[in-house]
């Protein structure tokens, strides 16, 4: 259940990324309104900014608007019922989200956006479960039965460039030392099919990660943030590892995660989706898409 909850946060972060892209594109669109500016050419065909934005709205508009409404609703309800979440709770959840994630999409958002979305998710859980009674015994039983959920191993956020020979790896390091871009080199020459197109971005790895050998993980552990490794032998050849971030492992005590467990147990007892929709009527939400549906 906890992992499902974390993946919902990650999905919400992707929605935030869509919002960010829309803001970047819609703001300039105002300046070019009515100009039919071309954003792409395909042979003799042209794609205008208006066509592009209309397509983006059709695909993502309702989802993005609903997410923005949810945030406003959650903020208003939290203020109404005097519900808060601590900075420690947000930081703890952020650590868990980071260590679960593999890939580069989350890097497109700065950390403040991560924390903002996590805060709203936790506030929503508090609001939904504020009247649910969970006993101390139930919380302790949950903790004892799910201790692995609260044990975070040392984790390393890395990128990698994989080449066939040690000589190629050494040449890659020379180019990095001369100022070449790690992501560009990864896209140009890495033979790793999963990370090359992402500029070598691999996400977080730990000793529990079966994708990598112990030697590979040990080499990542030796690096300082922003530092790359000497050639490391891997199954397909040799890798050059770049360390972005190191998160220290931690085992959370019961007292540290007690509130988190209370929310989780309460949500399981309720057996309903963690959605802000039930509060929309209380706040009197009136949205563009609701009006459109009423007309149909």
UniProtKB/TrEMBL annotation:
According to its UniProt entry, this protein's organism is Bacillus infantis
Q: Which Gene3D superfamilies does this UniProt record tie to the protein? A: 3.10.50.40, Porin chaperone SurA, peptide-binding domain
Identify the Pfam families for this entry.
Answer: Rotamase_2 (PF13145), SurA_N_3 (PF13624)
Signal listed as a keyword: yes
PROSITE patterns registered for this protein in UniProt = PPIC_PPIASE_2
Protein name according to UniProt: peptidylprolyl isomerase
Q: Which domain of life is it from?
A: Bacteria
Show where the PpiC domain sits. Answer: 153-245
Instruction: Name the UniProt key words of this record, in alphabetical order.
Output: Isomerase, Rotamase, Signal
Q: What is its EC number?
A: 5.2.1.8
Gene Ontology MF, one: peptidyl-prolyl cis-trans isomerase activity
Enzyme class (EC, first level): isomerase
